[in-house]
Amino acid sequence: MIRFGVGLAQLGWALSHWWNRQDQFDWFGSYLADRQLVEPTRVLLAISAGTVTLVPVVTLIDATTRPETGYVVAAVVASILGIALSMMWLFLPWPSVSRSRWWVVVSDVAIALGCLAQEERIGGLNGCALFGLVGGYIAFFHGARMLTAHIAFTLVVAGTLSGLMLGDDQGTVSSVAIAVIQAVLVGIAIPIATQFMLEVLASDAAASEVDTLTGVLNRRGLERALERISTMDRQNSHGLAVLVADLDNFKEINDQYGHRYGDRVLAEIAARLRVAVGASGVVARIGGDEFVVADSLRWTEPTRLANHVLHTISAVSDPPVTASVGVVHFSGRIPGRQSVMSTVLFTDLADAAMYEAKRSGGNTVRTRSHHYS
Predict the structure, then answer these.
(1) Hey, which residues does 246 pair with through a beta bridge?
(2) For position 214, what pLDDT does the model report?
(3) Rounded to two decimals, what is the model's pTM?
(4) Residue 246, Cα to own-chain centre: how many angstroms?
(5) In degrees rounded to 5, what are phi and psi of residue 170?
(6) Among 41-45, 150-154, 276-280, 359-363, the least confident range
(7) Which letter does DSSP use for residue 215 in this model?
(8) What are the CB-based long-range contacts (under 8 Å, 24+) for 177-186?
(9) Which of 301, 313, 317, 324 is nearest to 274 (CA)?
(10) Are 171 and 165 in contact (CB under 8 A)?
(11) What domains, with CATH codes, occur in the chain?
């Protein structure tokens, strides 16, 4: 009995903590970017949205009798919305928080229309399981309150279909109840359980690989990220740029305005570097005022990337903070058995180029190149 009471108390705390947690879109987007998983995620989401689009169309094609106009309109609208949702992930930039929320709303509407477009109500009721896909997306990218709203909408749609099914004498109470349990619980239990698990993973990830002040990777996270980059493309077909940026006059900022202001400047620099590098790159803070950026050279070239970082940093605060930037262009096949040594080489060579820039007076870029032979 005591264990049951303790369990209820812990469950109450967990539910309260879950309900009050912040929207995690930015954190999870950064988590994916640090692991070079943004583009695979976009492809998977586009495929999922596109596959769901086929359901109402196939239903119309397979209909034994000519469906009524209302069913046809609902199916066509659902398909058009599904195609648009799929294209968003393929052709538009990674979404903002607000656009992601709108994606959820439109997805729910499209699935609801697809379910209501089926003359066989049992098929529409079973189709409510597709709400589980959207619920899973919310579990990863958003918070408890949005997930609750989604679940409530799922229940309204399932309840409406159940009422229509019983009213049309298309099933018994027991068959409707079984269909509701099978379809709706998939869309409720799995997303909630997923969000609970993510809460634990987020805490562990933040403690082990993320710099608590700036939200970018720490030294340990950087080592793992560079190892992943080198492992994913052993041939290094496009080349790899690793740069180290050390702030020139940050001590004066701290002395004049205080360390709390300096911390805000560091956090702002990290946030702007994250935006500047984009989804393909890696940003880390490995020292008090030292940042590391790494990116594949598929979309840019080393000097352009370094100058972009230099101007990004100098635009952050007033008075401006300048930086000495050292960048190394790595080419050639990265040794498969020396991933840890390669990581050290990445940062050491970029660090040496950075000190060369600092000896030149700062607020400048120095480049080097290294070819694996």
Answers:
(1) 290, 324
(2) 87
(3) 0.61
(4) 28
(5) -95, 5
(6) 276-280
(7) S
(8) 179/122, 179/125, 179/126, 180/125, 180/128, 182/126, 182/129, 183/125, 183/126, 183/127, 183/128, 183/129, 183/158, 184/128, 184/131, 184/154, 184/155, 184/158, 186/129, 186/132
(9) 313
(10) yes
(11) 21-209 (no CATH), 219-371 (3.30.70.270)
Tell me the HSE value of 62 on the side-chain side, using a 13 A CA sphere: 11
Amino acid present at 162: S
What is the β-pairing status of strands 282-285 and 290-296? Answer: antiparallel
Neighbours of 348 (CB within 10 A): 13
Give the integer Cα–Cα distance in Å for 175 and 60.
24
CB 67 within 8 A of CB 123: no
Return the pLDDT at 183: 66
Nearest alpha carbon to residue 284 among 23, 28, 22, 35: 35
**Which one has a higher pLDDT value, 190 or 272?**
272
Contact 280, 36 (CB under 8 A): yes
Q: What is each CA distance from 195 to 70, 118, 248, in whole angstroms? A: 37, 32, 42
DSSP character at residue 214: T
The pLDDT value recorded for residue 246 is 92
- Going by the DSSP 8-state scheme, the letter that residue 21 receives in this structure is P
pLDDT of 289 higher than 80 = yes
283 within 8 A of 275, measured Cβ to Cβ? no
Q: Which residues have a Cβ under 8 Å from the Cβ of 172 and sit 6 or more positions away? A: none
Q: Render pLDDT for 209-234 as a digit per residue (tens, 0 to 9).
A: 888 888 888 888 888 787 777 776 66
- 190-215: per-residue pLDDT in tens? 777 777 666 666 655 556 788 888 88
CA atoms lying within 13 Å on the CB side of residue 314? 15
Distances (CA, A) of 274 to 28, 64, 174, 366: 13, 54, 54, 21
Start-end of H helices in the chain: 2-20, 25-34, 38-61, 69-91, 97-116, 121-126, 131-141, 144-167, 173-209, 219-232, 250-257, 259-277, 302-314, 339-359
